[in-house]
Specification:
single chain, DHBP synthase, 128 residues, globular, 4 helices, 6-stranded mixed sheet, 34% strand, disordered N terminus, alpha/beta
């Protein structure tokens, strides 16, 4: 099977929306790590609808990035949907960064704090 090198070396810009329980679970640092390993430029941030990613890179790298989001999601995350759209907006800079979270009324699931869960487990062990 031959690979079309024109497609793999084409630069693309994409917006990726991840919906589900994706906030408070360490998703942005995971996305940052995967994006850097895939040599992508852009940013990731939380907003009221979940996690929003703006990314630029070679088509093959962006495809690999999206596949790895599923495979390497943090253990407490639950991905309900990943939506990918193309755009022509030039992304500033030459690195991938974690952006500030947008504020507002959350329309996405947020996982309970792991520290609260561990605290409650310790308390249960002491009581039982």
């Amino acid at each position: 099977m031959s690979v079309n090198t024109k497609d793999t070396h084409t630069r693309v810009n994409a917006t990726i929306r991840i919906r589900g329980i994706v906030q408070g679970v360490g998703f942005r640092p995971t996305i940052w790590r995967i994006a850097n390993e895939c040599d992508l430029v852009g940013e990731v941030l939380n907003d009221t609808n979940g996690v929003l990613i703006h990314v630029s890179g070679y088509l093959q790298s962006v495809d690999q990035f999206v596949q790895r989001l599923h495979a390497e999601a943090p253990p407490l995350a639950r991905i309900d949907a990943i939506e990918r759209t193309s755009h022509n907006k030039d992304l500033k800079g030459n690195q991938f960064r974690i952006g500030a979270s947008d504020s507002g009324n959350a329309l996405t699931g947020i996982a309970p704090s792991l520290s609260l869960i561990l605290c409650n487990c310790r308390w249960l062990n002491e009581v039982l």
